[in-house]
Amino acid sequence: MEKRIGLVGIGLVGTAMAGNLISAGFDVAGYDVVAARRQVLVEMGGAEASSARDAAEGKRCVILSLMTSDIVRQVLLGDGGVLSADPAPGTIIDTTTGDPDKTVAIAAECAGRGVDYLDATISGSSDMIAQRKGVFMVGGSAETFAACGEIFDALAERSIHVGPSGCGAKAKLAVNLIMGLNRAALAEGLVFAEKIGLDPAAFFDVARASFAYSRIMDVKGPKMLSGDFSTQGRLAQHAKDVDLILQCARNAGQGLPLSDVHKRILDAGIAAGEGDLDNSAIIQQLRRETVES
C-alpha cells in the first residue's frame, strides 16, 4: 500500500495518530492552522504542509481530525481544500466526531468527485489512541474499509466496520453518550462518598472491585482523585458532542433526560472556566452542586 499519508488537524488526537503512523513506517505530511502543532509533527518525524491542499498533494489517502462537520466540509471542498489537489486523493478517512446527516452529505459529495470517504470515528482518549488502544467505528464502503486495512492496523488494535456512510458518526455519538454518563456517574459517586465521610481513595478501590465498575474508572478515576486535569480530552469538546447527541435524539423524536442533565453540568463547568481542562474535571462542577441541609 502507498505509504504516504496526508493529515489535516494535528490536535491531541491528530498528534496521537501521526505518532502511530510514523512508527509503522508511513510518511506523514500534516497541516494545522496552528503553526506550533505543525512543528510538533516535524519533531516527531513528519513533514509540515503549508495548507490542506498541500497535505493532500501526491497522497492516495488523507486523514482528517477536526472539530466539526462544517470544518470538515470547508477543509475538503473549500478554496485550497483537500479535494482541490491535482489529482485529488482517492480516499478520505475522517475521524471527526460530526453530525451524522452532514457526514452522509459530505460522503455523497466526495463520491460525486470519485473520492471514497470513510467516517472513522474513535472511542478512546488521546493517550489511549497513542497506545493503539482506541477503537475505530467506521462507516462507508466495506471494500474501501478493507483496502485501508494497513492504515487502520497502524492506528489501532481494533477497527470495526459498522455500516454505510454516517454509521461511524452515529456509533460514536451513542458510545459517547454512554461513556460520558459513566464518567459523570463516577464523579458524582466520588463526590458523594467524600461528602458522607468515606475516604475517596479507599472507596474508589471498592467501586472498582464492585459491579459498579466500568473501564472509565481506570482512565479517569486517578485523575479525579488527584486533581490532575491535564488534558486527554477537553471538557468543552465533550459538551459539543452532547449537543450533537441531543440534537440527533430530537430529530429522532427521542428524549434523553440523563443527557439533558449532563449537558447542564458540562455547561456550568465551562462557565466556571474549566472548558479546556480534561473532561474528568466534571467532578469540580459536581462538588459545586450543593443544597441546603
TrEMBL record:
GO MF assignments: NAD binding; NADP binding; oxidoreductase activity
Keywords: NAD, Oxidoreductase
Domain 6-phosphogluconate dehydrogenase NADP-binding: 4-163
Entry's transmembrane regions: none
Ranges for domain 3-hydroxyisobutyrate dehydrogenase-like NAD-binding: 166-284
Pfam families (alphabetical): NAD_binding_11 (PF14833), NAD_binding_2 (PF03446)
Protein name: 6-phosphogluconate dehydrogenase NADP-binding domain-containing protein
